[in-house]
């Protein structure tokens, strides 16, 4: 019987370290199109069960896309998850070569589910959203400075705030235009915005940062975003269930959407009030609303159905 092989790829700006388990082969290549193309051919010949690499702020996109486009199973995972795995196996040292070996071991032991990478258009939308968040943060900082500044700097700060607000307006228009140019996004945008409590910004973030929406079941999508409660029990200690991990940006925007939905969405509002009535704290109740809202929109996209509410 053929032995299944698992590959770990550690991505750096200038080079890639590759490790294969269980045969133990390790090598390094330059991070450029020519050598990545040769790497894809080499890996295809091994017919791996799974290839794992860490999300490295975009450096992994080129090699992951090249591998995924040939039909190879690629999983881009959270670096913290891999580091915790390395510590649990006693591997405290950290070098590029060791990281590649840990990734291959992680692929073999944990077997994370391969994810489809978002396409070029999705990455473009995500870049706009990241820039939008940066502009908002700068605008808030400048407004805070304006309250404490003296006359010498006041005019310049006001001009910068005006420029930032105009840039934000232009960016929102570009986001809306980007969504409307894609028939698939346009349809998803229509479905999502039919839900009371979800607006344009929430829709943009979900489309760009959660392409799996509508393709996974309710448990997997909740765990992926980081709104699924996990046990914190050990021995005689029994603690509260808590959420952690997942996609922070999606979770933040989902929090704001759920907060709005507790006022304007009849289903979420009734659910929130019921939890408060049985003694749940507002924070716990709102977290539960985030999960319920996510499950609802996931089901809507899966079945291509708009929001419908029938009063009980």
- The assigned structural class equals alpha/beta
Which strand order do you get reading across the main beta sheet?
3-2-1-4-5
Average pLDDT score: 85
Distance between the termini: 59 Å
Number of extended strands: 5
Helix share, percent: 55-70%
How is the biggest beta sheet arranged? 5 strands, mixed
Individual helix count: 12
Categorize the overall geometry: globular
Brief digest:
The protein is of the alpha/beta class.
Describe this structure in words.
- By secondary structure, the chain is of the alpha/beta class.
- Helices cover 60% and strands 9% of the residues.
- The protein has twelve helices and five strands.
- It has a five-stranded mixed beta sheet with strand order 3-2-1-4-5.
- α2 links the parallel β4 and β5.
- α10 packs across α12.
- It starts with 5 loop residues before the first strand and ends in a 9-residue tail after the last helix.
SSE diagram, text form:
Layout: E1 6-11, E2 15-21, E3 25-30, H1 33-46, E4 50-54, H2 61-69, E5 74-77, H3 79-88, H4 96-110, H5 120-148, H6 151-180, H7 183-193, H8 200-209, H9 218-225, H10 248-264, H11 266-277, H12 282-303
Parallel strand pairs: 1-4, 4-5
Antiparallel strand pairs: 1-2, 2-3
Helix pairs in contact: 1-2, 5-6, 5-8, 7-8, 8-10, 9-12, 10-11, 10-12, 11-12
